[in-house]
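User: Study the fold:
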Amino acid sequence: MIYALGFVFLFTVGGLTGVVLANASLDIAFHDKFKKDSDYIKKFWVGLMDGDGSIQVNHWRKKNLQFRLVIKLKYNIQNISMLNLIKKELKGRVVNNKEESVLWVVDDKKLIVNIIKIFDTFPPLTKRLRAQLVFMKDCLLHKDVDMYLRKRNNKYLVNNALSFIKDDSYFKEWLSGFIEAEGCFSIRKNNYHSFSIAQKDEEELINSIKIYFDIQSKVRNSKGNIWSVETYRKSTLLNIISHCNEFPLLGEKLLSFDKFKKNNLDIVL
């Protein structure tokens, strides 16, 4: 009896949350609150870096090492706004590439050293970015061009020490940043709407997202070792909508999510 009452209470509160966030003015205010939350931006940024970011080390004429942090996205006003938000929090600069792409770039060594300290608190969750981070830290420590030239072909190789470890203290915020980069909200005329997410070489990570959202579909491996999961299940879509309501997207993906949510109002309410 107590369990049943608790279920009704939680279901009612969840429904009311959906109603509130369906109100445009309240929805905007809610998202604006997160845009001013420094901690949220940092955790979200780590997820975005895991999806669309890169930690780069190069050399100049085999004399000096050059360091760079980059996020590259499709050119549109929403992504420009999001990257300017990250710029405001972490510094760097936002560069438009002939209206084809927009980049957040940091190439100042001192600033990079300060920014990557964020990863000490909120580590990357993809093997790719973890490997890039380890290589950059090694190069920053030794400042050795010869060492860089010897190891550069291996700088993005994944090893067993970089296996996926889920940290619940920032996973939810991280996940919204990762969805912003790699998630897909599909709206279909037959009303079989779906959500999917994928990443190369990341079976454990995709499986963790599957478990978090209670996705019943299998995690699949396609060509190129790209692991993905997709769901059409109504109750699971409710979980995904509730998550993105609580931990909002900040760029172009927010537009597709809002359309997705409107086409699934019967799920939210």
